[in-house]
Design brief:
- The protein is of the alpha+beta class and 233 residues long.
- The protein is built from 4 helices and 11 strands, in the order E-E-H-E-E-H-E-E-E-E-E-H-E-E-H.
- The N and C termini lie far apart (48 Å).
């Protein structure tokens, strides 16, 4: 079977593009790379967008350097050239990119700001990570910094500066302090969101451009949703 063609690849939210990189503001529910569901991933939709935009007859190069969970929204940065991809991989691997997320949680954290340090152990069968206070076998250290930005009617808005990039890190660590993300049933939310999303958004991404060596600062607009909209009012 050939690649399924997306009917309207032009509906992508392109945040930034140059010869080497393209940044997309991912919608909740989109997958970044293909998985067992067989759904068309964002990487393929972006390739189709580039093929149509530049009238390229053949395959379009696109390298995936990092990912977001399917129910999460926000910035995803792809490499458009084989020169940029290994450099971009190194930037993410060596934690030289600053990733800032917004999360809406049901409960107010005990402190208005702080640093969370846990040891996360992944359970592949459950596709879930468990946060431990102390190191356990096969666990990885996870660090994030958070601060309370706003009190909403029924929720709290947190800003997260992600220091490490572990599986479901923000979701697991916030749940561990009694602040599960809105809609995140897997990590303790009392109800799901109707569209299957969770209220976690990759808001800002800052890094030195892997080729141009200029500072690149990207911002992804929030999804259109009454709770997200309340965060900016």
């Amino acid at each position: 079977m050939g690649t399924k063609i997306v009917s309207n690849p032009g509906n992508l939210q392109v945040v930034y593009e140059d010869n080497h990189l393209i940044a997309i503001n991912k919608r909740p529910g989109d997958i970044v790379q293909g998985d067992k569901t067989g759904d068309v991933p964002l990487s393929v939709v972006t390739q189709q967008y580039l093929r149509a935009k530049y009238s390229k007859p053949g395959n379009v190069y696109l390298g995936v350097a990092h990912r977001l969970d399917r129910p999460t929204s926000g910035l995803v940065l792809f490499a458009k050239t084989s020169k940029a991809l290994p450099r971009l991989n190194r930037i993410f691997a060596e934690k030289e990119a600053q990733k800032v997320y917004w999360a809406i949680v049901k409960n107010r954290p005990e402190k208005e700001s702080g640093v969370l340090v846990h040891w996360l152990k992944r359970n592949p069968k459950q596709n879930k990570s468990y946060a431990h206070i102390k190191e356990v076998p096969d666990s990885k250290k996870a660090i994030l910094e958070y601060r309370l930005l706003k009190k909403l009617d029924n929720y709290f808005l947190l800003e997260i500066d992600l220091k490490t990039g572990r599986h479901h890190q923000i979701r697991a660590q916030l749940a561990a302090i009694g602040c599960p993300i809105k809609g995140d049933l897997k990590y303790g939310s009392d109800r799901s969101n109707r569209d299957g999303s969770i209220h976690l958004h990759a808001k800002r991404l800052s890094l030195v451009h892997p080729v141009k060596k200029e500072v690149l600062e990207l911002t992804g607009e929030l999804p259109q949703d009454v709770v997200w909209e309340a965060c900016t009012q």
